[in-house]
Design brief:
The protein is built from 15 helices and 16 strands. It is α/β, with parallel strands linked by helices. A hairpin with a 2-residue loop joins strand 1 and strand 2. The chain is globular.
Length: about 450
């Protein structure tokens, strides 16, 4: 009864993100009391395996003892301080460590992923203005891309579900297909480079774009074109960074160092809002001048460099360094691949894909909100899975066991079967291309 009472109170006062609230007239809201490892527990003791890391943020489990201890220790020392004219040791140490990990030089803190994208876009734009190249005012993005929901971030996205309503407010941008040859990429940049400030990409995996995985070779072609034609390369590693793809950062697959790297989500292990943009010393130098020059970067967030969030981030990096996480994740990824292999003969499922501990497959889209039915079935079987349209995906915390991975995949397969009767496999093939633009009951 406590669950129902809290859910009722919630719906009286709250407005939840990426949700048609009318759905909750029939879809139960689930208040969560506590988390432990990969599990979330409601007020009546029912548990749910967090197969999506609570929107891709949680790395090392809920209520992780090491991250808990770091935040508690920081809480007794300094909770927050203005980050203009003041600093603190944690912010310095984290910036030093991130610079070493990424090969970049300067770190600018913000407080969420969309804000980090805004920072990178503004930095790139102002860089060219500071150099007198005032014609470089447009941004380039990939088709099927997503970079956040603030206006600047929306402008460099390509998913109409989020962008269409606000399109009159957004600056014009250019979109690049994901299937161009090297020659076609070069021709595009040759034609547009004079007006381009930056290309922004999600390296290797377009997560909100229904977990579309593309090749490291294509990523490298894009990067090389940016270098040839003097266009900034912005890597949005917000969702794919910190080991999700099997490497610390997805850019490593193409052996590239971007001009800007945006980080958030797993940066604090999923504990507190924090993001940052890392960039090159040469870019920083273009802003370094007298106040009268007007070249300073006038952008801020109230909680820039928040000490509590930074303490969580430092503890997260400590876990990576001391517990051999990337090697352990290889074993988990292999087991996940084996579980997915068992789905290949299932006539209800197609387009199975995986990179590291990100995995997904598609089901036939019969315009009947099947994703919502999968979500509901999974909840009834101790699993939090939140489909993107007709794409079922997994992005679990790294503390998941092999038995829990098996359970996760099995529940998802049964949920798809439960959602509706599926046509023949021949019908699956007809719909292989109908993924990225489909409207979804949920964002992610």
């Amino acid at each position: 009864m406590l669950n129902q009472n809290l859910a009722r109170r919630d719906l009286n006062v709250l407005w939840h993100p990426c949700t048609q609230m009318k759905d909750h007239e029939s879809l139960p809201m689930i208040p969560i009391k506590k988390g432990e490892g990969v599990w979330l527990y409601d007020y009546e003791g029912k548990r749910y395996l967090d197969a999506i890391s609570s929107w891709w943020v949680n790395l090392f489990g809920h209520a992780n003892p090491k991250i808990n201890a770091a935040i508690k220790a920081q809480l007794d020392q300094l909770e927050h301080v203005i980050f203009a004219g003041f600093s603190h040791e944690g912010a310095i140490v984290l910036a030093e460590r991130l610079a070493k990990l990424t090969g970049l030089d300067r770190c600018f803190y913000a407080d969420n992923g969309s804000s980090a994208v805004e920072v990178a876009l503004k930095m790139s734009f102002q860089y060219w203005q500071n150099l007198g190249q005032i014609q470089k005012i447009k941004f380039l993005h990939l088709e099927n891309s997503y970079h956040g929901e603030t206006l600047g971030a929306l402008s460099v996205g390509d998913l109409g579900l989020y962008k269409k309503t606000f399109s009159p407010l957004l600056p014009a941008t250019l979109s690049l297909p994901l299937s161009l040859t090297a020659e076609a990429i070069d021709q595009f940049f040759s034609k547009h480079h004079h007006e381009l400030s930056a290309l922004i990409v999600e390296p290797m995996v377009q997560c909100v774009g229904q977990m579309n995985i593309y090749s490291a070779d294509y990523l490298k072609l894009l990067y090389d074109a940016c270098k040839r034609y003097n266009v900034h390369f912005i890597a949005d590693e917000i969702a794919v960074g910190f080991g999700r793809t099997g490497k610390m950062f997805a850019c490593e697959y193409a052996q590239i160092i971007p001009d800007f790297m945006c980080l958030s989500k797993g940066l604090t292990g999923g504990y507190l809002p924090l993001s940052c943009v890392l960039t090159r010393e040469s870019i920083y130098s273009a802003f370094y001048d007298t106040f009268e020059s007007g070249k300073g970067f006038l952008h801020s967030h109230s909680y820039c460099g928040n000490p509590l969030a930074i303490a969580a981030a430092l503890a997260t990096l400590d876990i990576f360094e001391t517990e051999n996480i990337l090697e352990k994740n290889k074993l988990l990824s292999t087991h996940l691949a084996n579980c997915l292999e068992n789905l290949k003969n299932d006539p209800n499922i197609f387009n199975i894909r995986q990179l590291g501990l990100i995995a997904a497959f598609d089901m036939i889209d019969n315009q009947n909100r099947r994703g919502l039915k999968v979500y509901q079935y999974a909840l009834q079987h101790e699993m939090l899975i939140r489909p993107i349209a007709h794409t079922i995906y997994f992005m679990p915390p790294y503390v998941i066991s092999t038995d829990e991975i098996t359970q996760m995949v099995n529940v998802a397969e049964r949920a798809v079967l439960h959602a509706s009767v599926i046509p023949s496999k021949h019908s699956n093939n007809v719909l292989l291309g109908k993924t990225a633009k489909t409207s979804s009951p949920f964002k992610i």
